Short-chain dehydrogenase (Belliella aquatica), 239 residues
Amino acid sequence: MQNLTNKTALITGGSKGIGYGIAAALLAEGMKVAITSRSQEAADKAVAELKKIGKGEVIGIAADVRKFDSQKEAVDQVMTKWGQLDLVVANAGIGHFASIEDMTVEQWHETIDTNLTGVFYSIKAGLEGLKQSKGFFISISSLAGTNFFANGSAYNASKFGVTGFSQAAMLDVRKYGIRVTTIMPGSVATYFNDHQPNDKDGWKIQIEDLGQMVVDLMKMNSRTLPSKIEVRPTMPPSA
């Protein structure tokens, strides 16, 4: 199994939810982790909590995945501080749910630009660093990337796109020793879409579960690649 101590990671949208759970799991393994958020205040608040884990090293960076230059600057900060980039997790995401009739042009672009273009920018910005380390790129898609639903046109389009993009990217970059995995969760206990995690969320996938999954992927022998992983709650409530 791979030793993760002192390896480095950049996690987009890491100030809460799935990104935060992944950051916590990697820090517990002794990794050096940079999390990004559009808000430096949110990033700093998350870093203060993550530092309580007592292992690894963590920094917060204000970055917007919708802008390539911003994502490149985040990667440059990681490379300047730690000199290597072993893992990029493209996690930042947003959801606008409405019928085609009610979906605004602005909501459409924000969803596609964040959820899909942001994934492209993340691997594009980190590619040279990942080549050097023969590293890992993980995109967080969704079961909505294979299952469409009413009022989900923008979100479905973005996540179908992430799934397809990531699998094609995997074929493009594996010649450099870079591994690419797409994780596709179902219901997760997060703040997504203005939800407030609560005691009734116990049946859902928890953020620490996805954090453990990323650790397990990183530790797996590099000869083997789980390229696409669908993740569901074991016992969802009965309809």
Notes: The radius of gyration is 17 Å. The beta strands are 8-11, 32-37, 57-62, 87-90, 136-140, 179-185, 228-231. The chain has one domain: 8-231.
